[in-house]
Structure formats: structure tokens, C-alpha cells
Design brief:
The protein is α+β, with helices and mostly antiparallel strands and 519 residues long. 36% of the residues lie in helices and 24% in strands. 51% of the residues are buried.
């Protein structure tokens, strides 16, 4: 069980030394902690904010092989992604499932063109396939997507890919790393690297909540900070050349009525050259994404007016009912940690593949990649870190490692389904402690889930709960603001905090949540 006090005791111990210290608590960092601890290496992970606060909570909610990479001719990346997609569905079936995508066709050539390409996609998936693509008549297309624009519609092609809940999966990954013996903690920031004879031997870190500082020793340090990778690399070498070219992707969330049913829409070519998705998710519809070059990464990227307008305009071309700003329940942006290859300026062309860099002083940096391939990225990272740390090599074992919560059993109460094998425990806590009231009429989230998130998922703030332990902020920003005061009071009781803390939490949350409102 995740226990902050136990971990802080270890951080305070002068004699403690880890094999590996990982900086960064997103999918790549936590995946690396799982891989390392599963092999038997003593591992510590430090996250400066909350798990998944950055890119890992702001994805398009897809575990996919990468149809667009097929278009680019990057077959090796597609093959790797399709395999990892299949493994994730196997290892976390409570959160990863297949979903049908309809590609509507309006020009005479599109049906054959996309049909052939998606057959190749099926073939490359092999035994990891999610279902066979097929051509659809106009009637079959509208049966799947009844709200689709009919003017000029010639039919469609349906294919299958994967969908998931990104931070719910990440929290289960954190629990998996903990189950395997890793020390993993949020709200502890690495402030500098410790060196001896120009070789990195550990980190200096600070507890954000108390200000306490720790000198932590390790045989190797891994930089898994995504879009912030260059900041950590500068701690190592001040004048190091940047390797990250961040790109912002923005999504809008609409009511389910815009896309009823279980089929998603994929538009292969928009005016900015990106694929556009409209995807059913948690009884809402996610529409995205844009691709905008960003100079300086931030923890809370905010969408521009132009991005929102682009998504509304593009969605209107394919939906009978044109969405407007007043229809947007939430708007969220995430930064892609794209790796610079040469002097490319167009972020859509920069590599999505991952790269492991090792500095002269031994800092291991994992950069690039995407959610779907986090496990392979982690495996490659730990393989390199083993050499840097001069550890005895142990082979990776995560390919068939079931993640915490993994179950194929039907969860009796759908309200708790995304907790997987923990669902019964969460429901019992809600019932036994008289914490069964819902927090908002638009959601089925219970008061007891707040308590569970603190005791078992290391939630520390109102934002942690509303943005990442549940997905309320991403699904309906206004409703989440209305929930914040009750969540703050429940958390204060559990964490033994005072009224000043409650007010501070509500004020802080409102500032963040306003960035998710479109009007």
C-alpha cells in the first residue's frame, strides 16, 4: 500500500542507497519504475507535482498503433505500437478496450484508399489485432454514426483501435510499482544532481509540502520528465543542446448527444494536416487534436482561441449538429515531448519514436515516444541504466505482467468499474463509512472515493482528485468547480487539515479549472 510516511523515513535515512533514482512520475517514469523493480533493482521515483500532472493525463485517450505513422511509411513504429497495444489490453483489461472507428468517405477515391491502408493495418497487427476493418455502405455508416453529415456521403470504412483512461491507468501503474517494492512518491522535487569526480551519484530533493530537503544516493539517475527533460539535462550540463521540441495538442469535450453510440470518428486529413478524432469517453465526446509548436513548456498549457475555433469548425464539417462554444464542457491541452531530429521546424514531422540519451556524467534521459509504447520505452531505458549503474543484468519481465487492478471479471457495480479488482473495496468503504452520497448530480462519484484516493492512491490536493483520480475536470469543468468545496472538506478531515487549507485548496483549484472553461 502506498505509504508516504514509510517513504519519507527512507528518504531521511543517511545510509539508504538505491540502484536507480527516476525523476518524473508520468507514464514513462512510472513505467521505468515498474520495469526496474520487477527485475529486482532497488528503485526510487520522485515526482515534483502529482502523477500524470503533465502530458500523461492529457492524451486523446487512445492506445493505438498509429494510423498516421502508417501514412508516413514508419512501419517499424506501427508494428511496435500494435504489439504494445495488444499487451496493454491483456495486462490492464479493466481500463483498455477496443473501440470501432469510422472513417467517413466523401470523395470517390477515399473508400478504396483508406480501405487498403486499414487492411494493411490489420495485417501488421497479426495476433494482437482488435478486429478486422471493412467497407461500409452509406446506410451502414449512418447506422454506426447517426449524427454524421450526410451531404455528399459515399460510405465509410470501419477499423478497430484501443481506448483507455490515461491517468486511471497511470495510478494503477503507480500501485503496481509499489506492489513490486519500488519507493514512489509525488510532490518531491529534484532541485539538483549530486556528482563525485564528475559522475552523477544521486540527487538533492525537496518535499514541496514541508520544505524538507533530502540528499539521495543512487548508482544511476534516470531523467523521465517528458517535455521538461532539457531542464534536468541543464542541471547536468548548463550549456547542453536542447533535444525536446514541445508541441501542444488541444481537445474539446462535448455532450454525448453529438456522438451517440459506441463508435468513434476518424478524419484522416484536416486543414492543418493532422488526424482529427471524435471519440466517446466516459459518456462524453472528446474531439481533438491540434498541433502547435511551443517555445517553453508549462505544467498547465492553455488552449488558444484559434485552436478551439479550429476544432469546432472541423467537427462541424462532419456532424449534423454544429457544436458551438456554449456546447464545450471542458477544453484541455497537453504537450507532446517530441525529440528533435536534425533541424526540423514542423512538429508534425518530428519523431514520435523514443530515444535514450546518456550524458558524460551518466545521466540517462528517455525522451519522445507515446503512451502506447511506454512499456517498451521503460524496458529500453532500464537496459541502458543497468550499464551505467554497472548492475548485474537481469532480463525484463513486464511483457506479461498484469497491472494493479487487472481483472477480466465483470464488475457488479458499473459506477466503480474503472477500479478493476479494487472495485469491491472502494464500494465497501463508501457503504461502511456512510460516504455513499454522490458529489454532483451529473456524476456518480461517491464521497468515499475521495477517502480511498488519499489512503490508496496518494491524492494530496483537490486537483489530484478531480483531475486525475477521477476525470471530472476533463469531462465537465464547471461541474468540477461546484464539487471542489465538498471534496476539500472531505480531504481536510482525512488529512487533518484546517479551514485555511480548505480555502486555499478551493481557491487554487478554481484558478486551474478556469483554464478548462471555453467561455
Amino acid at each position: 500500500m502506498l505509504n508516504r510516511e514509510d517513504i519519507f523515513q527512507k528518504l531521511s535515512g543517511k545510509s539508504e542507497r538505491w540502484d536507480l533514482i527516476i525523476i518524473g512520475g508520468g507514464a514513462t517514469g512510472v513505467g521505468s519504475a515498474i520495469d526496474a523493480s520487477a527485475r529486482g533493482y532497488k528503485t526510487l521515483l520522485l515526482e515534483q507535482s502529482d502523477f500524470g500532472k503533465g502530458t500523461s493525463s492529457r492524451s486523446t485517450k487512445l492506445i493505438h498503433g498509429g494510423v498516421r505513422y502508417l501514412k508516413q511509411g514508419n512501419i517499424s513504429l506501427v508494428l511496435e505500437s500494435l504489439k504494445e497495444r495488444g499487451l496493454l489490453c491483456q495486462n490492464a483489461p479493466h481500463l483498455v478496450h477496443n473501440i470501432p472507428f469510422v472513417v467517413p468517405t466523401y470523395d470517390w477515391w477515399e473508400g478504396t484508399f483508406y480501405g487498403v491502408g486499414l487492411k494493411l493495418y490489420d495485417m501488421l497487427a497479426g495476433k494482437y489485432g482488435f478486429g478486422n476493418s471493412e467497407s461500409l455502405s452509406v446506410d451502414e455508416t449512418l447506422e454506426r454514426i447517426p449524427t454524421l453529415e450526410t451531404n455528399g456521403l459515399r460510405g465509410g470504412v470501419v477499423y478497430y483501435d484501443g481506448q483507455f483512461d490515461d491517468t486511471r491507468l497511470l495510478i494503477n501503474m503507480v500501485q503496481t510499482a509499489d506492489d513490486l517494492g519500488a519507493d514512489i512518491i509525488n510532490y518531491v522535487m529534484v532541485t539538483s544532481l549530486i556528482k563525485q569526480n564528475d559522475i552523477i551519484t544521486g540527487v538533492l530533493a525537496k518535499d514541496i509540502e514541508t520544505g524538507n530537503e533530502f540528499e539521495l544516493k543512487a548508482k544511476a539517475v534516470i531523467n523521465a520528465t517528458g517535455v521538461f527533460s532539457d531542464s534536468v539535462r541543464k542541471m547536468d550540463e548548463e550549456n547542453v543542446k536542447p533535444i525536446i521540441a514541445p508541441s501542444r495538442g488541444t481537445h474539446i469535450v462535448l455532450d454525448k448527444s453529438f456522438l451517440p453510440g459506441d463508435n468513434a470518428i476518424m478524419v484522416p486529413n484536416t486543414s492543418d494536416g493532422r488526424i482529427l478524432f471524435a471519440i466517446p469517453w466516459h459518456n462524453r465526446v472528446v474531439v481533438g487534436t491540434t498541433d502547435i509548436e511551443v517555445d517553453t513548456p508549462t505544467l498547465e498549457p492553455v488552449a488558444t482561441e484559434d485552436e478551439i475555433d479550429f476544432l469546432l469548425t472541423t467537427a462541424s464539417k462532419y456532424l449534423v449538429k454544429d457544436p458551438s462554444r456554449s456546447d464545450i464542457l471542458s477544453v484541455f491541452s497537453g504537450l507532446r515531448p517530441l525529440v528533435v531530429k536534425g533541424d526540423e521546424e514542423n512538429t508534425a514531422a518530428i519523431s514520435r519514436e523514443h530515444t535514450v540519451f546518456i550524458s558524460r556524467s551518466g545521466l540517462v534521459t528517455i525522451a519522445g515516444g507515446k503512451w502506447t509504447t511506454y512499456r517498451k520505452m521503460a524496458e529500453d531505458t532500464i537496459d541502458q541504466a543497468i550499464e551505467v549503474a554497472q548492475l548485474n543484468y537481469k532480463p525484463p519481465v513486464t511483457e506479461n505482467l498484469r497491472l494493479h487492478g487487472s481483472t477480466t471479471n465483470k464488475i457488479e457495480n458499473d459506477d466503480f468499474a474503472f477500479y478493476g479488482s479494487d472495485a469491491g473495496k472502494v464500494e465497501k468503504l463508501c457503504n461502511d463509512k456512510s460516504l455513499n452520497k454522490t458529489l454532483h448530480p451529473n456524476f456518480k462519484i461517491r464521497e468515499g472515493e475521495v477517502v480511498w484516493s488519499i489512503r490508496n492512491e496518494m491524492a494530496r490536493t483537490v486537483e489530484d482528485f478531480l483531475a486525475r483520480r477521477t476525470r471530472t475536470l476533463f469531462l465537465d469543468a464547471k461541474a468540477s468547480i461546484e464539487m471542489a468545496p465538498r471534496v476539500a472538506k472531505l480531504m481536510a478531515t482525512e488529512l487533518n487539515k484546517n479551514r485555511k487549507w480548505v480555502k486555499g485548496q478551493i481557491d487554487s483549484y478554481n484558478i486551474v479549472a478556469k483554464g478548462y472553461l471555453a467561455n
